[in-house]
Amino acid sequence: MRSRILLRVLLWTLPVLILHNVNADDALKEIQEKGVLTVCMDVRNLPYSNADPELPGVDVEIAHLLAAELGVKLELHWLNTLRDSLLGDMLHGHCDCVIGVPIEERAMSESVQLGKRVDFSKPYYGTGYVLIKRKDLQKSPKTLEDIKLETIGTEAGSIASDVLRQMGYNRRIYRSQIAVLNALQKGEIAYGCMWANSGWLIEKGSRIQRAAQTETAYPELEIVDGYIPPPRLRWNVSIAFSKNTPERDTRALQDAVNTIIEQKWSEEKLKGLVQKYHLPYYAPFQEEEQ
Q: Which of 191, 232, 237, 269 has the fewest CB within 10 Å, making it most exposed?
C-alpha cells in the first residue's frame, strides 16, 4: 500500500518538477540577450580590485577578459566588503558571478557554506600564504621545514597563524600584514608568512592606490623565490556562481566559463596579469594535494 501511495506522489510531482526546469531562467541566455555580464566587485581592494580604471586590479582585468570571451559588455556591481558580502550580493541576484574566489571555506571571508548555494568554475590559478624575507638574507627556503627553527612572523587571526602554531613552528604574531613587514624590515623576525597580496604591499605599502608613488615601500624585502605553499596554506582560485535552481539555470553559464578557462586562458596570459600586480603566480594545484 505504501509503495502505491509513493508511486502516485511521484507521478503527481514529476510533471511539476519538469515544468520548473522548463520554465527556469537560463543565466547564459539572459546575459547574451542583455549583452551584459554583471560581476560583483570590491570597490577598493588592491591588488585585486579598484574602482579607478587607471589601476583596476587583477580581478577586474580578468572580469573584462571573461566578458570579452562571452561576447558581451562588462558591468561591475561595486561593493565595500567591510560592510557587504560579494557572494551574498550574488546570491541576492545583484550580479552573475564573483571573480577570484578561493575554492576553500577557510579562505573565504563570506559566511556561505560551500556546496550549499555556491558553485565554482574550474580553477585558473593558485594562491596562498607565501614567505617574505630581507633581500640581504642569502638563504631562500623551498619549504617551511627548511626554516623550522627560525622566527616566523604572521598576522594574528590568520589561517597561517593557526597552521604554524599547530605544526609547532616558532611563530610570532602581529596585528596586521603591515606590522609583519615592519618587523621584517627591522630584523625582529627572520621570515614573514603572509597572504599572496604581500607582494603588492611590499611595492606600495597599502591596498589603496598611490598614483604619485614611484618608490618601493619596502625595498629591503622580497617574496622568497621558488617557495611553494604547502597544501594547508594554499588554494585554487575560481569564479563563483549561484548554484543552479529550479528558478535560475546556471549550468550553461558555468559550462561556457569552464570552456573559456580551459581553451582561452593560457598560463602565460594569466601569469602576466597576476605578476603585473606583484602577485606570485602558481598554476592550479592538483585536487589530491588540496
A: 269
Q: Same domain, yes or no, for 44 and 71?
A: yes
pLDDT in tens, 47-78: 999 999 989 999 999 999 999 999 999 999 99
On whether residue 274 sits in a domain, the answer given is yes
CATH number, residue 175:
3.40.190.10
- Same structural domain, 140 and 201: yes
Do the Cβ atoms of 182 and 221 come closer than 8 Å? no
Listed as ranges, residues in the chain with pLDDT below 50 are: 1-21, 111, 289-290
Per DSSP, 282 falls in state: B
Cell of 90: 550574488
Give buried/exposed letters for 134-164 (b at 16+ CB in 10 A, else e): beebeeebeebeebeebebbbbeebbbbebb
Whether residue 110 is found in the same domain as residue 140: no
Residue 181 contacts residue 167 (beta carbons within 8 Å): no
Alpha carbon distance 290, 287 (integer Å): 5
- Domain membership of residue 169 (yes or no) is yes
Estimate to the nearest angstrom the gap between the alpha carbon of 217 and the chain centroid: 25
Q: What is the pLDDT of residues 178-208, one digit of tens each?
A: 999 999 999 999 999 999 999 999 998 876 6
3 belongs to a structural domain: no
Same domain for 122 and 241? yes
Q: What is the extent of the structural domain holding 158? A: 128-233
- The answer to whether residue 119 sits within a structural domain is yes
**Contact partners, residue 149, CB within 8 Å, separation at least 6:** 170
The structure's pTM equals 0.86
- Omega before 47 within 30 of 0, i.e. cis: yes
Nearest to 192 by CA among 178, 204, 203, 209: 178
196 pairs with which residues across the strands?
none
